[in-house]
Amino acid sequence: MTEKLYYTDMYGREFDASVISAENGSIVLDRTLFYPTSGGQPNDTGILKATNGDIHIVDVRQEDGTIMHIADGRVDLASGEKVHGIIDWEKRYIHMRYHTAVHIIDGVVNNDYKNGLLTGGQIYDDHARVDFSFDIIDKDLITEIISRAQDIVNSGLKVFQREITRSEALKIPGLSRTEPGRQLIEKLPVVRIIEIENFDFQADGGTHVANTKEVGQIEMLKIENKGKGHKRLSFRLN
């Protein structure tokens, strides 16, 4: 099992690790800062410095608890070999900013608009999208939601993680606002929570900034009608 350093040190950029296995360009380490694609947040990229030179990591995946670092070609690594990892910090940080922005928008909708819920989202390198369950949505409503979200951003609230047991999590209404998320909580012995002080908390497995001010300015890009009860907002951060 790989130690997930990105949970305990979300601002970490470099780390040392030992190779567990390396086959067909897929590397498993005993510990890593590389975030695997999960929950709408893209994977990290970067390099592993090894005895025989730099290895460029272009993809990171997690399957059955195993985190696989995918190199851009063949690798020459032995089990037990020491490597030094460096993640692409600029890419990671923009993902953190967008992920926290999604949580803020979700919190605004959950707290202030009881006729709709945020039902999904996806983060990219230069924008993000969120899906809502509103039957009707227009530019005025989205402008209002973004304005309230921006107020939270500008308030400079602390963002932090904590862990609770599954039994505790199941007693908290709305800890996960999607059915797959609720089903996942039922399977986890420990549930990780991302909390924005005095505003919102959700079960979450991603990385986030430490203060809402780091999110920056939220700018609406477009609104799409994906069918009844399915509306989509795309936005970017400045």
Q: What is the secondary structure topology, with strand pairs?
A:
Elements: E1 3-4, H1 5-8, E2 14-23, E3 26-29, E4 31-32, E5 46-50, E6 53-63, E7 66-71, E8 82-87, H2 89-112, E9 118-123, E10 128-132, H3 139-154, E11 159-165, H4 166-170, H5 179-185, E12 190-196, E13 200-203, E14 218-225, E15 231-237
Parallel strand pairs: 1-4
Antiparallel strand pairs: 2-3, 2-8, 3-7, 5-6, 5-8, 6-7, 9-10, 10-15, 11-12, 12-13, 14-15
Task: Describe the structure in brief.
The chain is an alpha+beta fold and 238 residues long.
Task: Tell me about this structure.
The chain has 238 residues and is of the alpha+beta class. It has two domains: 3-87, Beta Barrel (Elongation Factor Tu (Ef-tu), domain 3); 92-237, Threonyl-tRNA Synthetase, Chain A, domain 2, CATH 3.30.980. The protein is built from five helices and 15 strands. It has helices at 5-8, 89-112, 139-154, 166-170, 179-185, and strands spanning 3-4, 14-23, 26-29, 31-32, 46-50, 53-63, 66-71, 82-87, 118-123, 128-132, 159-165, 190-196, 200-203, 218-225, 231-237. The strands form four sheets. Strands 2-3-7-6-5-8 form a six-stranded antiparallel β-barrel. Strands 9-10-15-14 form a four-stranded antiparallel beta sheet, with helices on one face. It has a three-stranded antiparallel beta sheet with strand order 11-12-13. Helix 2 (89-112) crosses helix 3 (139-154). The radius of gyration is 19 Å and the shape is globular. The protein starts with a strand and ends with a strand. The mean pLDDT is 93.
